[in-house]
Amino acid sequence: MSERKYRVGIIGSGRIANAHAQGYQGVDEVEMVAASDPVQSVLDNFGQQFGIENRYLDAREMLAQEDLDIISVATWHKLHAPMTIAACAQQVKAVLCEKPMATSLGECNEMMTVAQRNNVKVAIAHQRRFNSAWTDARQLIAEGAIGEPKQIVCRGGQGLLNDCSHLFDMMRYVLSDPRAEWVIGNVERKTERYERETPIEDRSAGIIGFEGGCIGMLLQEIAGPNYQGGIIYGSDGIIDLTEQRARLLNNKATDWEDRPSDGSNQHVAQARELVDWIEDRTVHRGQAEHGMAAVEIIMAIYESARMHEVVQMPVRTYCSPLELMIDNGDLPVERPGRYDIRSFLLHGEEM
Ligand SMILES: NC(=O)c1ccc[n+]([C@@H]2O[C@H](COP(=O)([O-])OP(=O)(O)OC[C@H]3O[C@@H](n4cnc5c(N)ncnc54)[C@H](O)[C@@H]3O)[C@@H](O)[C@H]2O)c1
Predict the structure, then answer these.
(1) What is the dihedral angle through the alpha carbons of 270, 276, 280, 283, rounded to the nearest 10 degrees?
(2) Which fold has domain 132-260+294-340?
(3) Residue 36 CA: which ligand 1 atom is closest?
(4) Does CATH place domain 6-128+266-286 in 3.40.50.720?
(5) Nearest to 338 by CA among 158, 156, 159, 198
(6) Alpha helix (H) ranges present in the chain?
(7) Is 84's C-beta closer than 6 angstroms to any atom of ligand 1?
(8) What is the pLDDT of residue 3?
């Protein structure tokens, strides 16, 4: 590698930015030099905690003033696309953007285009791709430990774009990233529910047909408990996956085998692989194509609900079909009053 360390700037200095910063702290080749956040107290706390002196209330000013190599985009969903695009326009080497990649496929397309034009590597922070138990499940399935994967069942919450984006990404990751071929789903939105200022549905369900024949199923706020993981049923066995472990039962054993996660820091591994990608040693396992594939499945569920049809991929509706249905009055609110399930995170008058 070069003598100079890769200079990191962080956009959005809140909760997940702390995880990004801990990730960068674990990688020798990088140094965090700048951070931004419009809330002075959040910015200062973050800067002090991680020894970052160059602090900006305006992220675009940070991008213009600093000579940065890596940008973390750790703002709420609606700013993922504009901030990633602004970072790519500065021709940095890499952007690590939080999930969901964006709130519509149109935004994802713009991010991909600007990344390509400016030769910037963009990864999306589905960091559980670095959980050793999830990688273990992927390898077991690839080796045929459960035969032909037939079905994956997950239970999520907080709307499809938030936690559930990780679950759709998990389905693809453990199956070695197949294409989704078709999707059918439905949504219920009878309250004015938002999550981090993005409109979300009260409840939803989606069924996904993956290339190779495995069927993914996700229930959102329908049948708890919600958790990160799922049950993968194969022709010759089952993997029960959580963040803590993969449990395997197959036709070679008489009892479940517990295969715990090694507990290593996923954010450090995610940041390290970004450096390896910049230096062309590997492709980041969270590269933007995967983040976009998760958003496409979500948009396909919304589109299936809007069009009352099985959606064949690729999805060609580039706005959010959920937002379209809300705007068109197709999802009449029966219990009015806007609320955000994240409102406890608002930073008071400084906002
Ligand atoms: N990968 C994960 O497991 C995971 C976990 C938590 C959150 N997230 C994602 O991270 C994102 C941020 O969530 P959070 O929980 O950290 O929220 P947060 O509210 O704690 O932090 C977001 C910060 O962005 C700041 N911000 C707003 N506008 C800005 C702007 N124009 N420029 C710079 N900063 C700005 C806010 O003031 C806030 O401090 C969300 O999209 C969420 O989905 C991912």
Answers:
(1) -30
(2) Dihydrodipicolinate Reductase; domain 2 (3.30.360)
(3) 33
(4) yes
(5) 198
(6) 15-25, 40-50, 59-65, 80-89, 105-117, 132-142, 163-174, 266-278, 288-307, 321-328
(7) no
(8) 76
**Residue 348 — very low, low, confident or very high, per pLDDT cuts 50/70/90?**
low
Q: What is the pTM of this model?
A: 0.97
For the chain, residues classed under CATH 3.40.50.720 are 6-128+266-286
Q: What is the pLDDT of residue 150?
A: 98
Ligand 1 atom nearest 125 alpha carbon: 1
Ligand 1 contact, 270 CB (< 6 A): no
Q: Is the CB of residue 75 below 6 angstroms from any atom belonging to ligand 1?
A: yes
pLDDT in the model for residue 235: 98
**What residue spans of 175-287 are helical by DSSP H?**
266-278
Probe target for ligand 1 pocket from 11, 76, 161, with the most ligand atoms within 8 Å of CB: 76
Q: Which of 10, 13, 16 to mutate to test the pocket of ligand 1 (most atoms within 8 A of CB)?
A: 16
Q: Among residues 296, 278, 311, which one has the least CA distance to residue 104?
A: 296
Distance in angstroms (rounded) separating the CA atoms of residues 166 and 100: 8
The whole-angstrom separation of Cα 91 and Cα 111 is 13
What lies within 8 Å, CB to CB, of 252 at 6+ separation is none
Confidence grade of residue 350 (pLDDT, cut at 50, 70, 90): low
The single residue listed with the structure tokens 């594939």 is: 293
Mean per-residue pLDDT of the chain = 96
| Bridge partners for 349 per DSSP | none
Instruction: Report the DSSP pairing between strands 180-188 and 198-199.
Output: unpaired
DSSP assigned state of 315: P
Residue intervals in the chain for CATH 3.30.360.10:
132-260+294-340
pLDDT surpassing 50 at residue 351: no
In angstroms, rounded to a whole number, what is the distance separating the alpha carbons of residues 343 and 195?
8
> Which tokens sit at 189?
């939105």
